[in-house]
UniProtKB/TrEMBL annotation:
<dbReference type="InterPro" id="IPR029052">
    <property type="entry name" value="Metallo-depent_PP-like"/>
</dbReference>
<protein>
    <submittedName>
        <fullName>Metallophosphoesterase family protein</fullName>
    </submittedName>
</protein>
Length: 202
C-alpha cells in the first residue's frame, strides 16, 4: 500500500504546546517522537511505501553528524520504504547521510530521495507531491499533495495538506492518530470532501 505524510519535525521542541501554527500538546520531544513512531508503525508494514513530503526533523547539533545519527535512528525504526521529497528544513547533507546509512529493506534501499516532487497515478487521477503548495491553475484530475503550512489549508480544492498537523482531516469520517501517514483511501476521501465543500460554496 501507499501512504502519505509530511512535516513530522522530529525533535522540534519549539513546536510543543498548543498554538495556531502546529498544535502539538506533548510534554517533550521524546514523547512526540515516540507517538509518531508508534502511530506510523501501527498502520504501515515493511511491504508498504510512505511518501514523506518534507521537513523530517528540526534538530541542530555540533557536530551535525550527531543530529543526523539520532534522526536516522528514528527513521530506521519506521516501517516501510520511505520516499523523501525535500522540504525547506531538509538539507542535502542530511539526505546524503541517510543514503550512506540506509538500513536496506527487503534487499533494496529503504530510503529514496527527490529534490522537488514526485508524480503518481491512481484511479484516473494524478497526485503531484511537493513540499510547498503548488498553484497549478485550471487542471483536470490533478491534485497537489503537499505539506509546509502545518495547521492551515490552501483555499483551492485541488490542493490537499497531508502534513501531520493538517486541519483537512475534518473531511474524513474517522480520526487518524497523530503522526500516522494517510492511506490512499483517506486521501481520496479528503479530496472528495474538499471538492464537495467547495461545490456548496458556488
Amino acid at each position: 500500500m501507499q501512504y502519505f505524510t509530511s512535516d513530522t519535525h522530529f525533535y522540534h521542541k519549539d513546536l510543543l504546546g498548543m498554538n495556531d501554527f502546529a498544535p502539538r500538546p506533548f510534554p517533550d520531544v521524546e514523547t512526540m517522537n515516540q507517538t509518531i513512531i508508534d502511530h506510523w508503525n501501527a498502520r504501515v508494514t515493511d511491504h508498504d511505501t510512505v511518501y514523506h513530503l518534507g521537513d523530517v526533523a528540526l534538530y541542530f547539533t555540533h557536530p551535525a553528524q550527531l543530529s543526523n545519527q539520532q534522526v536516522c535512528a528514528i527513521l530506521c525504526q519506521l516501517h516501510g520504504k520511505i520516499v523523501f521529497i525535500k522540504g525547506n528544513h531538509d538539507s542535502r547533507a542530511f539526505f546524503k547521510y541517510l543514503a550512506a546509512h540506509d538500513p536496506q529493506l527487503n534487499g533494496q534501499p529503504k530510503f529514496e530521495f527527490h529534490d522537488v516532487g514526485v508524480l503518481i497515478k491512481y484511479d484516473h487521477r494524478q497526485y503531484y507531491m511537493t513540499h510547498y503548495p503548488m498553484m497549478m491553475g485550471i487542471v483536470k484530475q490533478i491534485i497537489n499533495l503537499h505539506g509546509h503550512i502545518h495547521h492551515y489549508a490552501v483555499n483551492i480544492k485541488e490542493n490537499l495538506n497531508v502534513g501531520v498537523d493538517t486541519p483537512e482531516t475534518a473531511y474524513l469520517d474517522h480520526p487518524v492518530p497523530f503522526g500516522a501517514p494517510f492511506s490512499l483511501a483517506e486521501i481520496e476521501q479528503m479530496v472528495q470532501g474538499k471538492a464537495d465543500d467547495f461545490a456548496k460554496r458556488q
